[in-house]
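pasting for ref. prot 1 ->
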Amino acid sequence: MARASKSPGRGSRAGAPPGRGGGARTAAPTRRRLGRTRAAQPPPRQSRTSGRYTAPIPRKVKRSPRWYPKLLLVLLLLGVLAIILNYIQVLPSSPTNWYVVGGMVSILVAALMATRYR
């Protein structure tokens, strides 16, 4: 069973409205904002914008030509094929570093083209 507390000022006095406190101690004066009530606050913004930046819709969507992805894949496969064929010594005068350099350049150009593909 709960024991009633005898300390003054901890709860509301019997018969007092809730939140008023009470008891033997007198409450210290509290600072109140004078002149401000809920009605005096400005209403929330009723704007249609969300506050975030939205990019404008482009008039014409940019697209890559039809030959662009085909050339990209040909360069990529040609570079890989040049390196592999040099490694297994099928190409004339292989093994030589020039086939490896050519294959790496071809792969690099294909990777750069891939970044520009739309």
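and prot 2 ->
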Amino acid sequence: MRGEIYILRAFKRLSPERQGCILNAATHLFAKEGYHHASISNICRDAGISNGALYKYFENKESLFFFILDYTTNKLETEVYKKNIANSKSLYDDIYNLLKGLKQFIDNYYDYVSIYCDLGSSSMNRFASKTSERLRKSTSIYTIKMVEESKKRGDIDQNVENEVAAYLIDNYITLFAYSLVSEYHSKRVNLFFSSKNKVLSKDDKINLTIQSIKLALSKNSS
């Protein structure tokens, strides 16, 4: 696990429950207040440990934050992409399973995904440059494979380049995730797709995401 470069030996000796308590407290504050405003003292207060104890586990706040980002990347890859992408009957079954898995993942790890999505802001560029590239590489492998298999089945236009189709799918999946953790992006989705001030459910957003991808990749779209 690449994230181990950010932790000190004492953290590894903690029980999984104690590790989780510290990570959850830190992640919640990072999600609530942002990296720059979340303080070590408040993280320690919420985790029920002393400031000195935290520095036995991580060198500084930056190392703690990087570890959380790397932890999230590993979880996303194993619990969403590897677990939910299989050789289904169609590309859109794969995407549906992926979106359902992502929805469940966000329900379970809301704060973790929230701070990951914050990497899109300019103030987080130095973190994004070190972290998001790994997730982009891993997700591109899965999405390109999905596209290649779908072409064999005749699901999408053979003339669409694999990388272009995979990029489009990945961007729709990213926008879906943003709409579940960001009020701004949630309102944008509702603005375009909802009527009579109805708030779209998560399942509504899944169906709209698949519908939009189908429209973009259908054989008749070109």
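The chain is about 75% helix and 0% strand.
The domain at 65-217 is CATH 1.10.357 (Tetracycline Repressor; domain 2).
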